Amino acid sequence: MNYENILSEFDSGITTITINRPKKLNALNKATIAELHEAFKAADQDKSTKVIIITGSGNKAFVAGADISEFADFDVDQGEQLAAQGQELLFDYVQNLSTPVIAAINGFALGGGLELALACHFRVASSNAKMGLPEVSLGLIPGYGGTQRLTQLVGKGRAMEMIMTAMMVDANQALAYGLINHLIAQDELLSFCESIARKIMRNSSVAIKAAIKAVNANYTDGVNGYQVEVKAFGNCFGTADFTEGTTAFLEKRKADFPGE
After folding, report:
1. 6-24 residue pLDDT tens
2. Residue 161 a catalytic site member
């Protein structure tokens, strides 16, 4: 599929999605969100894709925020609809994707950009990265899950401070907060993410899908994550991957998971 605002490339089990609006510092608009949804959906449905990496074009920004010109004149109902649709199409969608998603944060990740990174399963940042949720400086609050996911990652106090002051944190501070998993030199960012992806790919994609669901259940209101885990654990015993994994272990060889 041809896209106007993003690039999607597949290589050796990894699909890399690049937000490609460098003149706008890769800001998210409705069209880009829609294209990202389609790209994530296509990658997730492609059985040859085992890991997805999301990044931004250029060396300045992952995503420097939302395209404010699109909603500057919105009323209350339009604003609520904007947030609801964005969460459904992209942010919640990415969090619940069955294929692992790594955010490669190559510069500014602000507003909706940080919210996109937060929705990914984990984050790796370049040394020049800066992250923040500056929405209150515009008279807004984060609307794409930022108030929830940031708090889950860094704790209530730090999230409150970041949101209320509209502060940016650098990559070192983000690492100390637990906002990112790794801090890497910019020219090594994608290769490092690919090395993690290859480690993931050695394992059962069926089990990984179940693990994502179980972990996410802990953050879902009204859902008992322990019960989800027990059910998912039991279901693993009926998979070809379980048979291969245990057989390979007992035979002291490397497992060749069929992904079934």
Report:
1. 999 999 999 999 999 999 9
2. no
